[in-house]
Amino acid sequence: MKLQTMIWKELWQRPTPMLTSLLAVTLGVTAMVAIQNITVFSERKIAGDMESLGANVLVLPPTVSLQDYYSADMHGQTMPEEYVSRLALARMPGVENLAPKLCVESNVDSIPVTVTGILPQSEFQAKAAWQGLGLISPVGTDRGCCATKANVEAGANDPNSLAANRTIQELGDRDVILGQDLAAQLRAKVGDKLLVLDESFTVLTVLPSTGTIDDSRMFAHLHSVQDLSGAGPVVNVIEIMACCEDAAGSLITNLSAELPDTRIITIAQVVETQVAVNGLMSRLSWVFLSILLLVGGASIASVMYANVTERRKEIGTLMALGASRSFVTRMFLGKATLLGLAGGFGGFVIGTVVASILGPQLLGISVQPLPELLAVGMVAATVVAVAASFLPARRAAGLDPCLVFNDA
């Protein structure tokens, strides 16, 4: 009888013990694949955010803690809008754009929405005291700064530029900009009228999807949000576009000196925190994999030893009929190999599905299968299954048919 036939019969006739013991191996691969998937795509999202945002700084109320750039204004604490004027008049080298924001909660057609007040660049241009500060410079002006400024200025006239550049040139007192998800939820399109904060607003544009919290937001003029919400002349955060590399070193010090009663955070600090969390998750995934593989290996070895003990007569009969010791060894190891491959593949599939579900819900990231994790999972599961089965297989191959039948 062929070796492959013997292995398949063995699997079909006694599947439960081995599949049960291999469950730990499958769970280990599942945990590793799910966590690694989320970690990898989270790091890619961070890199993309950094590339699109440039070198940015956040000015926050002093007691605010921050984990995510896009939710920097969701803490509920405020500071005077007058800080924006102070920063504009300070004429600090490297400050290319100021973007104050205020978030308030409201309802539109009984649907809860977050209304974010923003100040368009035209407001800076309209203030005589701010003229000539260099915050809004013509495209092509060479001030020794990186290309981020030019990119912001070039797209500022387009309302959709808010999605990528975090700034907009014009925004009327009764205009709103909707995130992609919120527009779908409200079934609103450009030109529609919405009742927001007890006033009628016109939808100026619907932003393209960004994969961030902005997709579920509504943006309106800062002063309109302040007046209608009764919050007064306050903001939650001031975003600063700081793209001059030669000024980056002293900018934070200058900002802290100008606004000592605020907290200054660089996007690099936020990214470092997120990278640290990703690194911890990645290490934990390998810890989970190692522990569960050890548990699975011990379970497989135990089942294999029990299988050899229970089937001594069958193994002795097989060897009496001419099966060599290497044939018996390869039969047990072949079964372990197939189960390891199946466990690795199953763990990869389950882990990828789990990551694709949890990624968007927990971190707002889209997760795709990573083929390299399939190879890692299958190799790890197979090596553990074969290693755990090696000694039981050698024990089975070392049985003496004569002694087996004499014991009977």
From TrEMBL:
Pfam families: FtsX, MacB_PCD. Its EC number is 3.6.3.-. It is found in: Cell membrane. The keyword Phosphoprotein does not apply. It is a multi-pass membrane protein. Its main location: membrane. Keywords: ATP-binding, Cell membrane, Hydrolase, Membrane, Nucleotide-binding, Transmembrane, Transmembrane helix. It comes from the Bacteria. Residues 287-401 form the ABC3 transporter permease C-terminal domain. It is an enzyme of class 3 (hydrolase). Residues 20-236 form the MacB-like periplasmic core domain. InterPro entries: ABC3_permease_C, MacB_PCD, Macrolide_Exporter_MacB. The chain crosses the membrane at residues 284-306, 336-358, 370-391. Belongs to the ABC-4 integral membrane protein family. PANTHER family: ABC TRANSPORTER PERMEASE YTRF, MEMBRANE COMPONENT OF TRANSPORTER-RELATED. This is Macrolide export ATP-binding/permease protein MacB. The lineage of its organism: Bacteria, Pseudomonadati, Planctomycetota, Planctomycetia, Planctomycetales.
